[in-house]
């Protein structure tokens, strides 16, 4: 049973996002970005109460901007998803979770050491250049279940 319901078009869109956001961090880095996307679909809390699909997560607007830098800058569409990225996206959608993105709802590249919190959310760990943040205890229990 997959972690979330999805269509083939979701696999391609998610694969393009994973590539655009983390290609330089290899397969594991792309998987971690993909995990955040799936976690946001699962989360029924905070800024993610109204997002229930991969496209809704990827094209979500928060504070007047798209949530993901790749969408803001337009490079999410710079190339079609390759078969290898589609395989990674499908892994995320079906079963893949790993620390530090296991329960993370946010990530970013600070171009410096990771801050201990980001918008009040605790740092769960770092992979290469990306810092991952999961929700504060008690603020988003749904992400820990899904």
UniProtKB/TrEMBL annotation:
Keywords: Hydrolase. Residues 24-133 form the Cell wall hydrolase SleB domain. It holds the Pfam family Hydrolase_2. One of its GO terms (molecular function) is hydrolase activity. It comes from the Bacteria. InterPro entries: Cell_wall_hydrolase_SleB, SleB_dom1. This is Cell wall hydrolase. It comes from Neobacillus thermocopriae. The lineage of its organism: Bacteria, Bacillati, Bacillota, Bacilli, Bacillales.
């Amino acid at each position: 049973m997959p972690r979330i319901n999805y269509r083939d078009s979701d696999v391609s869109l998610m694969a393009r996002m994973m590539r655009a956001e983390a290609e330089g961090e290899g397969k594991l880095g792309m998987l971690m970005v993909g995990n955040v996307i799936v976690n946001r679909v699962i989360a029924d809390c905070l800024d993610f109460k109204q997002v229930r699909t991969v496209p809704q997560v990827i094209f979500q607007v928060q504070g007047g901007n798209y949530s993901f830098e790749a969408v803001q800058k337009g490079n999410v569409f710079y190339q079609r998803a390759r078969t290898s990225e589609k395989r990674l996206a499908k892994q995320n959608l079906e079963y893949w979770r790993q620390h530090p993105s296991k329960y993370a709802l946010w990530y970013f590249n600070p171009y410096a050491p990771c801050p201990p919190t980001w918008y009040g959310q605790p740092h769960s760990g770092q992979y290469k250049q990306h810092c991952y943040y999961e929700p504060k205890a008690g603020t988003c229990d749904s992400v820990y279940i899904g």
